[in-house]
Every structure is written in C-alpha cells, then in structure tokens.
Amino acid sequence: MGVQLISANHAAGLAATLAGRANRGGRGFCCGVYPITPATDCMEYLCAQTIERSKVVRVESEHSAMGVCIGASAAGARSFTTTSSNGLAYMAENCITAASLRLPVVMVVANRTMGPPWNIWADHGDSLMLRDLGWIQFYCADNQEVFDTVLAGFRLAEDAEVMMPVMVCMDGFTLSHTIAQIEVPEQAEVDGFLPQTDIPHRLGSTPRTLGQIEVAHQIASHRRQHHDAMSTAFDVYARVQLDFAAGMGRTLADPVIAYQCDDAETVVISMGTIGATAEQVVDDLRREGQRIGSLRLRMLRPFPVEMLRKHLAPARRVVVIDRDISLGYGGVLWGEVSSVAGGDKLVQNYMAGMGGGDVRPHHIKGIIADICGREAAGRPVIMEDLQ
C-alpha cells in the first residue's frame, strides 16, 4: 500500500487501470472514451497506461463510447468509461441499453451543469437525469472515495446477484481537479479483491439474443428481475465492504454517512462535496449547543429507505440541499427524501450550488436558521432567495 498525491480524475483512472489489470487472466479490459470537460483528465490518464489484455478505444462521440462498453461487456470483458453533462445526455440511449441488458459497466461521471447556456461547473442534474434507468449510483465527497468506489463498483456490478452497471459521481472541478493524498493498494491486493469478470449471459459459442422484441408480460418480468437485482445491491455491498476491509486494510464508506444524528433535532441531507461542508457546520453549531446532524447520501440508487428512516427518527426538522433542480417541482433529492421522512417532520428543500456556485459554511448556517424559524414547510427555496 502506497500514498499518491493525485486528482480525483486520476484516482478514478488509476482505479480503473488496476481493475483492468486484475482481469488479465479473464477476458480482458476495454474502455470506450471521448473527451469532455471536466472528465477528460480521467480518460487521458487511461490512454497513457499499459494494461494487459486491454483496449482503450478512442471514438467519435459519447454515444459510441458507451457502445464500445456494451460490446466489450457483452463479450465478457471488464468495461469502463467516463463522461459528463451533455456527453452523458448524448450516450443516454446506450446507457439504457447497458442497464437493460444487465451489463456490469462502470462509469465515472464528473458532474457538470447541463447546457445551454453553457457552464462547465458542478451540478448533479446530469447524473440525476438517468436515476431511473437501472444504474446503481454513488456520489463521492473526496478523492479517496472516488478511488475506492470505482474498485468497489466493479466488484458490485459484476456480482452474480446484481449484474447491473454502476455510476460513480464526483463534483466537477470541485473534486475532479482537486489534488489530495490517497492510499493506493498494490496490484496483488486488487487482484485478491476483484475476481475475474464472469458475465453469465456473455456472447460466445452458445447462441444468445440481446435486445430482442418483447411483449408486455416479458417486459414486466424483466423489470421485476432488474428491480430485485438493484434491491439486492445493499446486501451485496455490505459483503463487498467486508472483503475490501480485509484486503485493503481500510473501511469502504457506507451507502449513507451519518454524522452526529443520534440526538439531532435538525438534520441536513446532501450529496457529494456539500456533505463535507455540512459536517463542519454541524461541529460549529454543536459547540453553540444546537442539536444538528448531517446525512450524506452516497448511494442514490438503489434508494436507502430503511437507512434514512433509521437516522432521521430523532429529527423534527430535515433540511434537504439539492445541487440540482427538477424544473416545475424542486430538488430531486428532496422529492426522494420526502417520500420516506415521515409526516411528523418539517422537510424543507433548498437548492444550492447549481452551476458550480459555492456552498460555504455560512450558507448552510443560513439555511439552518431559516428552517428553525419555520412552523411549516414552504415551497422549495433557490439559494438566491436567501442571499
């Protein structure tokens, strides 16, 4: 185990490289890549690596990049790509295909605002656009989490009980280009953690059909199978955590990170790097005697209903900070949380940091002051309403 000082983009590329080499005794490793800011550094890193039994395919579009991953995965290879924003929108059709065909592709998304108008900074609207398509979704808060989650993503996606694609999300620039120290395992440790890829329905000598026409009852049956596989991911991830700790000597982060929630009257829920800032605010306000807690949602799909209910049980007020907006509704995370929080809690939505805007401690303190002054929840609040 060594330490490297690298960006989250390079951490993702390094994790994919180690995972690719770990499948050298199987059917190899393949990436389809096309550049888009702020994910380009990750694919450039991959293009510079030497990986046994591998192919990094430079294509003409994001749609084709996912097409390469579909073909490689359908042939039994370990497969990876990375993209962002409108690039993710362009590959959406093939993202649906990868999930529907139960292909365990791992994709890193450097979250960026959808355009036009054009903006290259962090916003979760791109990945949330695909939340219902059958991809397991993780949202990371630091470089170590990005590295670890990419490795764990392959293990989870390729598990026979799951066999679904995994999306690892990181805030564009805020995380993708930030340099930090991370612990990097030796190749032998990764080899021990990641078994050779085994895709039961891969194309080969046994005739198979992928993407055939189906009638209604077949669609319903397959959607049930997909839903069950997604729901199984929690139990499988718990096993992955145990094996990760045994092999890597450190803890793989939980699907939900609870911070000072045991007695919290007010809980702040967020995803990505905002969660780290929220924890700092909790410490500040706890010193002032306020019973504040933070929940950072790392796994959005499958949605951790029971974990959220457990951690929210003591709370009377729930702040949901969204780095996105569902136009005409409010924040996407707020909609998800509201469905499980319980009718006895005041659940208020605040949309902050859209388009890469700063979400600093004083912003979150202002949000907490706002909800503490409310007797009932109101319409979703866009942060400029508080400034």
Characterise the protein shown here.
The chain is of the alpha/beta class. The chain folds into two domains: 2-248, Thiamin diphosphate (ThDP)-binding fold, Pyr/PP domains (Rossmann fold); 256-386, Rossmann fold. Helices cover 40% and strands 20% of the residues. It has helices at 8-22, 40-47, 62-74, 85-90, 92-100, 125-128, 143-157, 187-193, 216-248, 274-287, 305-312, 332-341, 361-372, and strands at residues 2-7, 29-33, 54-58, 78-83, 106-111, 136-139, 166-171, 179-184, 256-259, 266-270, 292-297, 299-301, 317-322, 346-351, 381-382. The strands form three sheets. Strands 3-2-4-5-7-6-12 form a seven-stranded mixed beta sheet. Helix 1 (8-22) runs parallel beside helix 7 (143-157), helix 1 crosses helix 8 and helix 10 packs across helix 13 (361-372). The longest helix is centred in the middle third of the chain and has 33 residues, at 216-248. The protein is globular and about 65 Å long. The termini are far apart.
How many angstroms separate the termini?
46 Å
- Report the count of strand segments: 15
User: H/E series, N to C?
Assistant: EHEHEHEHHEHEHEEHHEEHEEHEHEHE
The tally of structural domains comes to 2
Principal-axes shape call: globular
The amount of beta strand, in percent, is 15-25%
CATH architecture of the largest domain: 3-Layer(aba) Sandwich
Note the main attributes of this structure:
single chain, 387 residues, alpha/beta, Rossmann fold, seven-stranded mixed β-sheet, six-stranded mixed β-sheet, 13 helices, 15 strands, 20% strand
Write a brief caption for the model.
This protein is α/β, with parallel strands linked by helices.
